Amino acid sequence: MNDKAPSGMTLISLTGSALLSQCIHVVARLGVADHLAESAKTCDELAKLTGCQPKPLSRIMRALVKFGLFMVEDGQKFSLGPLGARLQTEHPRSLRHFCMLNGAEYYQAYGALVHTANTGQSGLRHVYGTSLYEHMERNPETARVYDLAMDEISRDAAVDLASSYDYEGVQTVVDVGGGSGVVVRAILRAHPQLRGLCVDRQDVCERAVKTIAASRDAELLERLNFVAGDFFEELPRGDLYIVKNVLHNWNDASCVRILETVRRALDGGALLVVEHLVEDDEPSLDRLMNAVLQMAICEDETDARDEARMRAIMQEAGFTVPRMGQLGTGHYWFEGRPA
What we know:
InterPro entries: COMT-like (IPR016461), COMT_C (IPR001077), COMT_dimerisation (IPR012967), SAM-dependent_MTases_sf (IPR029063), WH-like_DNA-bd_sf (IPR036388), WH_DNA-bd_sf (IPR036390). The chain is an alpha/beta fold. It contains 16 helices and ten strands. A hairpin with a 5-residue loop joins strand 9 and strand 10.
């Protein structure tokens, strides 16, 4: 017997990570971090503020203390730890809404992962009977949380892209499937000579305009327009089309259709596809798990792509790929020019 072999408890602990995800989801949805922003509080105080039961909340909070989300003061008061601080709604690097999304719709899709493994089909569609986007059209609160979650996980890459790509000669940037425009907004903040268009579903555009009008980016609406549209059908004219974190939601055939729509709209400008890549021998656990997530929640037969597949998709849609680069966030960008 190998005395150094992992204990069975290691495997049991790994399977318990689903519970950890749900514990984080609970405190994110209840807004616990917001209630701790000013001062430490007892679990009884938090239970009253959030409308839940103190004993279950205490168990959840104490479990999360072990992971650095919270700290315990004087044996009974909870305060924010470094990770827990990022569950505050107004934290500049908040991940509250992503944790809410991950513990709700995404979590349900993970539960159907055996269906995905058996069929190659979306776990989320198996659970809800619709695609993620159709589900959001029927559930406005889920759509609101999703919009904010995408903002949260896109902020750093947006700022990096705004500062690292050469926008010389560009007048109008089109953010394709851009949600609330976190990418194009970062670019417009950094380059005041540019104008922007953000294309997404009607409901997404309406929420985005309201949110931005009440934010520090309100003045950007003078240079930024939101256009309701379908990137499988038609896109407005522009000089630079950015397709960031869109293609990973779709299988190869759908990706070609999206980029063909860009190709029809493009007149002498460029396409910029921004995505994470996952190689067959990928060393990053985060990227490997993200590839599993995509299979569970996205369109049937969707899979993470390596550089060769990304180039092949762009070329099939009518683009050459003269340049590519990598952002500090790990995303790769591919510049496409009409073939």
